[in-house]
Design goal:
The chain is mainly alpha-helical and 752 residues long. The protein is built from 31 helices and 7 strands. Helix 7 runs parallel beside helix 10, helix 22 runs antiparallel to helix 23 and helix 25 packs antiparallel against helix 26.
């Protein structure tokens, strides 16, 4: 404790130079502003996450985190500002090395065993922020360390530099220790900090060097470092060459283009070299030293971008366009490997456009991306080898979204269409675009499409819930009808019991069926009471207790479904009379049960249909105890029965779909896009919103989530078999097309 106090006193006694004091004040202003931006975005971010939450518990977690962050905002801002101030003040201590508690714990084997999973996730997130800033701003960070080191007693390194990412992240970590939120919410907060605070560190480092240089702190440091960096063997190349973007992380240089660039392209290109090489009659095949350099080819591609994007499709494709321009210039032609790259991309894009999965407007926007993508491929050898390359992911995301638009879609009125158009313009305008810029384009596009996707998903969810509820009602109707017909069809029953089953008890069974998942015993009870009622039709002595218990059960269940009380009272009286076999009532007119004479259908057990869901007064013939033969039970239940699907495919359905169609149907999962083709060969594009099972009903919606069609499993398979429904492959369209092109190239060349 005494040692710590002594260090504090030593630091307090440090008289900070004016240059360092102004650097500290400027840094605190910038960092405080950026941290305030983080808190300004907290509400929107957490509201958005809560809106997308999969459960009420997850939603409550995000709302609680948002509330706690809001409550502790002032405290966090104050502590962070104080931590930055202290990091400058500690530079007065000669022994200060800036070892953070986080780093110390990681260095200790014992400390590692104490790190929980959540702490480890936070540690990884912090380390990622530090390494990203340190790598991106390595040069400015190095200069600032050297300048600060020259004016303070302590030995300044990247770790204890008060404006370095290590100190800033450690200050934030210590500041957030008392913020008791779950790890998911904390990681979200750290992402906001990374986006707003850590992104400002680069500018802060540049400003810091400028400010200290202004105060005369190592004013010629940049010139000295530039002289040290010059390689005498490369001095003849001059200093006017444009710097290429750093596409490969950790490797800022590309192989130069000479006669051939061995190892300068991807493994895939090397493997396909013999298949994609120039034909024997190629003009430049015998003169490899005359091939165009990489810089010249990239410049040529950049110059063609605007012309290519605004023109219609060239018959020669990419390869024909570039070779035609090279021949016009009369200069060197494509080298062997460059020819392979251009040829592969040419075949790839030709295949993508010929498959006709993407509407005309979006196809034109994709065409504008061809030359920018070729430029990226020429400069980045890893493009074909990395499935997660940002440029490949961007093209896959664009094609995956574009496939959902109909042929007549207007991209200018759709936010996603406009975003794709803007991406094409940015890639065409930028002559050099590195990995980080591509990642940002990808991130922005994904964020936009996610918002659109969430809107559509909400609509789809309503459609599915409505269809599921309708199907549940339909299934209940079918089960009740089946149960009653199994017990009554083809048999003789008194008219009273027929009307009891068709008008009253079917409703009890219907409600019990809907509640089967939560209360399966209700269905069994309802069927059991029905069986007891029908059993009395056989005659025989009935005890008073049996009648009372049965009537009480009937009354209780009918009251439970809110059956009309007046009709219920009259029904119970009639049933009671029937159970006691009051023969005298059979010879008297039935004045109390209705005044409508039975029609022909009623005599066969088929009463007139009820128009609406309202319970009607039971109409029984003058002789309610008279038995009739039941041809078919016709029930009166709430909700609408689904009409049978049209008979257009009855013949096909009778034969059943073939195995290939069933296999295609089994792969038709939620989110798959399909084309419905009619007799005129026009198509209606929609997506599988979900499958209601049982019985296997496929629900199809358009891009906005509006219901388009609904078909059962068998009819869907028949439609696939008859080519009336075509399943589209919209996942990783670019990557999948690339695989097919490569397979075709190898197959065709090996065949020859």
């Amino acid at each position: 404790m005494k040692l710590v106090e002594a260090e504090k006193m030593k630091a307090r006694g440090f008289e900070m130079p004016e240059s360092l004091r102004q650097l500290r004040d400027h840094a605190k202003v910038v960092l405080d502003q950026r941290l305030a931006e983080v808190f300004d975005h907290v509400d929107d971010t957490f509201f958005d996450l809560a809106d997308r939450a999969a459960s009420n518990g997850e939603q409550a977690t995000y709302f609680d985190a948002m509330r706690l962050i809001r409550l502790q905002r002032k405290s966090i801002e104050h502590k962070f500002s104080q931590a930055i101030d202290n990091s400058f003040q500690r530079l007065g201590n000669r022994g200060y090395r800036g070892a953070s508690t986080r780093a110390s714990a990681a260095e200790s084997p014992a400390g590692l065993t104490l790190v929980e999973n959540e702490d480890l996730e936070e540690m990884i997130a912090m380390d990622s922020m530090v390494s990203k800033v340190a790598k991106r701003h390595k040069y400015d960070l190095k200069l600032l360390v050297m300048r600060i080191n020259s004016i303070v007693p302590s030995e300044v390194t990247a770790i204890n530099n008060p404006l370095g990412p290590d100190i800033i992240c450690e200050s934030l970590r210590q500041t957030l220790l008392e913020l008791e939120i779950d790890i998911r919410s904390k990681l979200v907060l750290l992402k906001l900090i990374d986006r707003h605070v850590m992104d400002a560190v680069g500018t802060l480092l540049v400003d810091g060097n400028r400010l200290l240089r202004k105060f005369g702190v190592l004013p010629d440091l940049e010139k000295q470092q530039a002289k040290k960096a010059i390689n005498p063997n490369q001095s003849a190349q001059g200093s006017g060459a444009a710097k290429k973007p750093d596409y490969q992380e950790g490797n800022s240089a590309f192989a130069k283009h000479g006669a051939e660039r061995s190892g300068g392209h991807s493994q895939l290109i090397s493997q396909l070299q013999e298949f994609l090489g120039q034909p024997d009659n190629y003009a430049y095949a015998s003169a490899p030293n005359a091939s165009i350099s990489q810089d010249q080819l990239v410049s040529l591609v950049s110059g063609l971008q605007r012309e290519w994007g605004e023109s219609s499709h060239s018959e020669g494709g990419l390869l024909g366009l570039i070779e035609g321009r090279l021949q016009q210039q009369g200069g060197p032609g494509l080298g062997r490997q460059d020819y392979s790259v251009v040829s592969l991309l040419d075949q790839l894009f030709s295949r993508m456009h010929s498959e006709n999965h993407i509407s005309g407007g979006f196809s034109r926007e994709l065409r504008k991306l061809e030359l920018p993508l070729l430029r990226i491929v020429l400069q980045d050898p890893s493009f074909f080898d990395k499935e997660k390359h940002p440029a490949r992911r961007l093209i896959n995301e664009i094609t995956q979204v574009a496939i959902g638009f109909p042929e007549d879609a207007d991209i200018n009125t759709d936010p996603v269409g406009r975003a794709i158009s803007e991406i094409a313009q940015k890639l065409s305008a930028e002559e050099t675009m590195g990995t980080e810029d591509l990642k940002q384009l990808l991130l922005d596009f994904i964020q936009l499409t996610e918002k659109e996707r969430r809107k559509a998903l909400m609509m789809e969810q309503r459609v599915i819930e409505k269809a599921a509820a309708s199907e549940k009602v339909n299934q209940a109707h079918q089960l009740v009808d089946k149960t009653l017909n199994e017990r009554m069809q083809g048999k003789s029953f008194p008219r009273l019991l027929v009307h009891f089953a068709e008008k009253a008890w079917c409703r009890v069974m219907f409600m019990a069926c809907l509640r089967t998942e939560s209360s399966p015993e209700q269905w069994e009870t309802a069927v059991g009471i029905l069986d007891r009622v029908l059993a009395h039709a056989d005659g025989g002595e009935v005890s008073d207790d049996d009648v009372k218990s049965l009537l009480a059960a009937i009354q209780e269940h009918l009251e439970d479904i809110a059956y009309e009380s007046y009709d219920l009272g009259r029904l119970i009286i009639r049933l009671e009379e029937y159970f006691y076999r009051n023969k005298s009532e059979n010879d008297k007119p039935d004045e109390g049960v209705g005044q409508i004479e039975p029609v022909a259908e009623e005599l066969t057990g088929q009463p007139e249909e009820v128009a609406g869901p309202k319970v009607q007064t039971i109409v029984v013939a003058n002789k309610p105890h008279e038995t009739v033969v039941i041809r078919k039970i016709k029930t009166d239940m709430p909700g609408q029965r689904k009409l049978e699907e049209d008979a257009a495919t009855e013949g096909d359905e009778a034969a059943g779909p073939d195995e290939a169609s069933l296999k295609a149907l089994n792969s038709l999962c939620r989110g798959a896009w399909v084309d419905f083709l009619d007799e005129t060969s026009s198509n209606k594009r929609c997506k599988v919103a979900g499958v209601i099972s049982p019985p296997g009903i496929y629900i199809f919606v358009n891009r906005q989530g509006t219901k388009v069609a609904e078909m059962n499993r068998n009819r869907t398979a028949i439609s696939i078999q008859n080519k009336n429904l075509v399943v589209l492959d919209n996942s990783h369209l670019f990557d999948n097309t690339l695989e097919r092109v490569i397979k075709d190239i190898r197959t065709s060349r090996q065949a020859h």
